[in-house]
Write the structure tokens for this entry.
Amino acid sequence: MTTAISIQQVHKRFAAVQALRGISMEVPQGAFFGLLGPNGAGKSTLISIMAGLARADAGAIRVMGHNVVSAWRQSRHALGVVPQELVYDPFFSVREVLRLQSGYFGLGRGNEAWIEELLETLSLADKADANLQALSGGMKRRVLIAQALVHRPEVVVLDEPTAGVDVELRQALWHFARRLHREGHTILLTTHYLEEAESLCDEIAILNHGQLVTRDSKQNLLARYPWRTLHITVDRTSFQLPEALVPLLTSADDSCLTFRLHRERDTIGAVLAALQAAGLTVVDLSTEEVGLEEVFLRLIGQSGEGP
Amino acid sequence: MSAGFNGRGFWTLFTKEVRRFLKVTVQTVLTPMVTALLYLLVFGQALEAHVEVYPGIGYSAFLIPGLMMMSIIQNAFANSSSSLIQSKMTGNLVFVLLAPISSLEFFAAFVLAAVVRGLLVALAVYAVAVLFVDLPLAHPWAIAVFAVIGSATLGALGVIAGIWADKYDQLAGFQNFFILPLSFLSGVFYSIHSLPGVWQQISHFNPFFYLIDGFRWGFFGQSDSSPVLSLAVGSGFLALMIALALARVSRLRA
């Protein structure tokens, strides 16, 4: 598999703050890649360097093989960035800003059909001639995505695309991001919503304090924390818990018991059998699978301060 | 491809900057034109009968080229500086910075748009003023050359100020404490020969004086200073502003 983004030993300092401390990693072509980390971890700095908005003090980044400094025009053609902030130009309409953005990339009338397609796909056709100022926040977010895609980049960076958006738009954005991925785009997603990364990404890197804490597939990361939680409600409040279950118990509140089970060593069946053997009847039961959030917190905790 | 010139990118940015100010013509063209004409009305009426700066040239006629160049100076500066600071404050400058547009293409687009606005306001002042005042055109080429040098210089200075300023307040300070006094004290309303000796000497250090003086020579064939010196100082000032502005833009563009 070829590399879409190659990051080699990138360092960046802002005055007294060392924002990036020798980050190296590769994002394979066609990946849906999550870049996670607490505030100040260095995610935005890394994206800024990738996009040419900032320059690394040392190291190099290549997008589709093009060095972002020495071959900056090619690397920018290969990269589409959806900025984190909801920025827009209040002087122009949606169609006008898309034509402008297309022109900046050296594309002329030949790109009109694609602009119309983007307007349709992102449900912006009705508002194509409306001034940006008149649009809702959600619509402005769609325009930002259209602007990032107007030159058909191979790599798309979504910098916290769902921050502050409602559930409906979030679902629509997730749907669109999956579609872009299916169509062959490499997606780099930064997000604070770990649920989002877990749902969308197949590869994940976690940054903290300007360093790469880990970079692995989502499955491998989730497997690093092999616990799940079992909540059980029994038919009485006063009872003797079987000896075998005591090490698994994490909390007990009257008739509600919470156990932490190892994915491979412990089974729900064994817990239920032990309770039954002790004469207890289970009236309710639920389980919680461990998510990326626990993995994230553990890794961040190990690498320094928490988020 | 990193070398070369992204012609369409430059053209798109240039036309965007022109369309931006044309969308608010009342503010960007009509208001400065009316302001200049008010100066002409007030000072022309008050001084026409009392002041003759050059032999055979009425005061109102003398005043018009000065007001035109003052409009060029102020509006060319305002165009690039206000567009840049607005784009910075609203954050939409990022769309240009993410695109494959070089520092030179970026700079040239902003400066050329400033030139267009400067010339448009000057032409508007001229078109109305000549309805009331006879104005000779001794050297039209010089009028065009000084108008372009003046507007390009101030467009470049506007790029510098627009990138430097982080707040509208800083830009207003630059405009009100630097551009405005230098343009007012450059011989718009008077010949520097009418000033006391020391002020005459000081005026020779004001680059705006040469822009106005050369421009006025284009109309009357008469001026306070040699038109060759004015052209040399104007071109030198333009070259300096281009160099400084390009350095600023390069830093902005990482």
